[in-house]
Amino acid sequence: MELTVSDLTVARGGVPILAGVQFVLAPGRALVLRGPNGSGKTTLLRTVAGLQPAMAGTVAGAEERIAYAAHADGLKAALTVAENLAFWASVFGGASIEPALDAFDLRALAGRRAGHLSAGQKRRLGLARLMVTGREIWVLDEPTVSLDVASVAMFADAVRGHLAGGGMALIATHIDLGLEADVLDVTPFRALAWDVAGSDEAFL
Amino acid sequence: MRALLIRDLRLALRAGGGFGLGLAFFLIVVVLVPFSVGPSSELLSRIAAGVLWLGALLACLLSLDRLLAVDWEDGALDLLATSPLPLEGVVAVKAVAHWITTGLPLVLAAPVLGVLLNLPGPGYGPLVISLALGTPALSMIGAFGAALTVGIKRGGLLLSLLVLPLYVPTLIFGAEVARRGAQGLDTSTPMLLLAGITCAVLALMPFAAAAVLRVNLR
Questions:
Q1: CATH value at residue A168
Q2: Does pLDDT of A193 surpass 80?
Q3: Of A51, A77, A90, the CB nearest to B81
Q4: ipTM of the predicted structure?
């Protein structure tokens, strides 16, 4: 089933940031969000992921299908790489962690505590978590931060594999991942400042 | 949910998890009380039940501000909120883990520390039972307070202020059970009230905590 976002208005701190966002994400497709810092990409992704309510408009086909990855990876420093992955795997229904360990080249680190990893290795572990969730829609916020070139390629391969299996990906990123993806620039959807008063009245 | 419980217990037991903090605080308070109020054994045995309950309550309070804050800071709370687990369940499991790592050791340590305060012989049973009944409510109310203050830097003070009034009924009836027990009186009325408060808290608080957590995650 497609992910359909129609006429979506997203707000941060009660102030609308993006208005009238529309897109349809079909199985096997990726959509890359672009826009300058502060343009509302993160807020849009959090709204699609259901972490915050939309001010207006609808997100259809997202319930219980989204694996979300943001700037923080949700790793526990006191647990090993394998324990961190196994925890998320069992929360999301008990997939095997082996493919994820291989895809992100974490096997050699499996017994290492997450607190002892480098920033790039932590990021790889955070992204490996996506594979153990078994969810169809990956919602990724700047997934390549602190990754080197080889790791970015590793990540792009993982996304390609996910798409080939009928998955979907919604990615906010500044770099070119080399994916066959549609691009959505969020700048034209920027909410106008004078919308603020009217929207607040209507929604409070 | 079992995975979450096991993870939280494992984190608490590993280095830096803060396991034993509440227990150490409880021990310190109870050991210091005879020094501060004087060595009169008659006075100590009169206040023992109340001091033990107060010590247990403060020890519980001490570890609350990390209950959800850790998961908030490293982003795990966002990920749990998008996971198949209901947020009510997540909060409840967090409270259970807090009780196992903080409340349960207090319950087990209380009779040992009761000796230090010259707690009268018939008081030990009611003390342990009242703590076992009351501390789950303290953990669950604490989880609600932690959900209210999650995302606030240095929210510990605000958390204490919010949670303390909610702790009062549990403290009143819990300490009353222990005091009556120590005096050899009938404890059934305050015991039933204590159990009733705990049941109500366990039934309602996960929903309240999840509701405020949803607001705070925005």
A1: 3.40.50.300
A2: no
A3: A51
A4: 0.84
